[in-house]
Amino acid sequence: MPTVARPDTEAPSRAVAEPAPPASPALPRFDLVLLAVSVAGISLSAPLISATAAPALAIALWRNVMSVGVLGPYALLRHRAELRGIGRRALLLAMAAGALLAVHFALWMPSLRMTSVASATALVTTTPLWTILLMRLFGRRAPRLVWIGMCVAFSGVLVLTGVDLSLSSRALLGDGLALGAGLAAAGYMLLGSEVRRTVSTTAYTLVCYTTTAVVLLGICLATGTSLAGWSAGVWWQIALLMVAAQLLGHSLSNRVIRTLGPSITSTAILLETPGAALIAAVWLGQLPPVAAYPAVGLILLGLVLVARGGRSR
Questions:
Q1: Which of 23, 62, 184, 235 could join 104 via S-S bond, C-beta 3.0 to 4.6 A?
Q2: Distance between CA atoms of 225 and 239, rounded to whole angstroms?
């Protein structure tokens, strides 16, 4: 007859230890540092645009021209054959994405001169919400948590626009431009994701940024925007914007998304809103009204729920 083990009285040497649950893999510390640098660079973008003494459309144009100047030689050297062989459909989609990116810049940058940095940044970061709505139009369904997050975020949008309406109609117009910029960015991201199925990031980015610069040049010429005649300090500020937002901001976030994952990366980038608001408060002395803080908090909470819902799916 088999002996029944009695765990309460067995010697420790004979006890059978249960296997420990597998530990979660540690996040790469270096990539976390890079992500922090990326968030800092993106957060500097809005206050720097607001502080630069040049027309907003001109800043948008020269930012993209400088980006093409930095990226172009490398892309032409390493991806010349790919650029020559891009198919007609991929080329047209990349150019359409560049046009939408130009619309994004043309709306968002002027909004920073009409409303507070905190409001404009919070509203332009609603890009994930517009992306989900656009995908729904094409038959893609989102999880319930994503829709809950969207409702929370849009309630924050309504509160924030109501606060700005109480300040001035100009601030409300700035809110509308920032929301439109978020919508344009959603279309840009969806088209870009389709192009990158068959085209490398470098080749796609060169075509996209070149198109953005050309479209912005046309907008500047059509609106009579001054494109030169500023001090050297202004040009340095535009160059700093290109380095902070493009090279350190978006490029590093694209670098770490492979190891940290889209959920962590996208949620961390939401820190752009409080980061930009803090920089604007310290550097520009720009403090949004007290009633705006709960609204910004609702927007951020909704976007976090959207990110978590997307991750669960």
A1: 184
A2: 19
d(CA 110, CA 173): 10
CA 17, CA 61: separation in Å to the nearest integer?
65
CB 152 within 8 A of CB 204: no
**How many angstroms separate the CA atoms of 194 and 108, rounded?**
24
- With 0.85 as the threshold, say if the pTM is over it: no
Residues 222 and 224: their CA atoms lie apart, in Å, by 6
**Residue among 95, 54, 77 nearest 238 (CA):** 54
Neighbours of 287 (CB within 10 A): 12
| Domain edges within the chain | 51-312
pLDDT at 177 over 90: yes
Residues 121, 46: contact at Cβ < 8 Å?
yes
